[in-house]
Amino acid sequence: MVSVWQSPLKAFARLGSLAFLSLAVVVGLATFSNPAQAVLKLQITEGVVEPLPIALPNFIGAGGDAQVGQDITEVITSNLQRSGLFRPIDPQAFISRDAGPDRTPQFQNWRVLEAQALVVGKITSQPDGRLKAEFRLWDVFAGQQMLGQQFFTPQSNWRRLAHIISDAIYERLTGEKGYFDTRIVFVSEDGPKDKRVKRLAIMDQDGANVRYLTNGNDLVLTPRFSPSRQEVTYMSFGNDRPRVYLLNIETGQREVVGNFPGMTFAPRFSPDGHKVIMSLQQEGNANIFTMDLRSRRTTRLTNSASIDTGPSYSPDGRQIVFESDRGGSQQLYVMNADGSNQRRISFGDGSYSTPVWSPRGDLIAFTKRSGGQFLIGVMKTDGSGERILTEGYHNEGPTWAPNGRVLMFFRDIPGPNGGPRLWSIDLTGRNELRMDTSTFASDPAWSPLVN
What we know:
By secondary structure, the chain is mainly beta. 12% of the residues lie in helices and 41% in strands.
């Protein structure tokens, strides 16, 4: 049993993080009573997880607040269900419908439905126009409160508020950080197959609030988030000239990282956000370089007569994984951050590409081509323990959720009407889900968490 009641200190710390993002969600000080000794906790460290039955009656509210309460509940329910770890109980089966956070639930009405957890909440419009949201998470069988929080936010932030509450529930019941208050940047592809318009786009992790960041006049590739979530780096071809850009996703301000004489590939931020690492093509070879974003000085890390590309830092910034064909086929290599101690880590059949270091630091995700199929897999950082999570005609470009439990990638469907779509899959190889986007979509990058 572990109690993680939201302390006043933690609540205020989170307020600071949200203010940094210029978002108006405000975390209030929890005012509910002692959470007692709740015992419910979902164990997700073992292979197959049985989804936890959870009851989520609509957050109550008067007048127009009732609709907001229903909308927030629907988003929370969808988030928890898509995680594969929870089984929301059909509301048609509910015996109690008027439960709110101000009174103790009639637990027997939820026990007969075999609900193990119950979330009840209330929405109240404030005189200043903001929403006040309160919720409690209950352990139904123990009859004990596990979590209680309240938030104040402008009306327009109701969806983000739902994601924040989802994260709080997920963390309390699993012991891991959630990943619902995050965004995905990707390449939107629209139009005929031979004349695709590719625009940089961003959306919430559940596919809502899609916003285009470029106009489609130039080809865009490989968008990647900065650690702050406020900037992305990406490749763009304008007038047949490849450049690496930095784009502030809030202001739309864009700047060129640098003009390089050869082709440039796969830019990605260092964990501290001070550098961009990428590969530059010179005299027919591609090698890996870093650029200090303050001094704009480049440092060469590899020097081989081959194609070295796709670099990705470890979370502590001390190591880099990359792909190279220096051994005769495309394989994965790891080196120290200064370029020293380069060693091959992949030795399976086929070729390996697009490596990405897990936010937890323990695994590397990759695309593998073998037997005419494109596979998405993971291996330990020394190359051992390779596991294939999914395979298909053309799977590519894995990106990690910030808690390191879910991967997103794109899958290309062949044929004249085919195109790429975004998919997610659990680290266990289960719960494979397609992300519903209005256009074809490729090359996703998952944002970091707000700490």
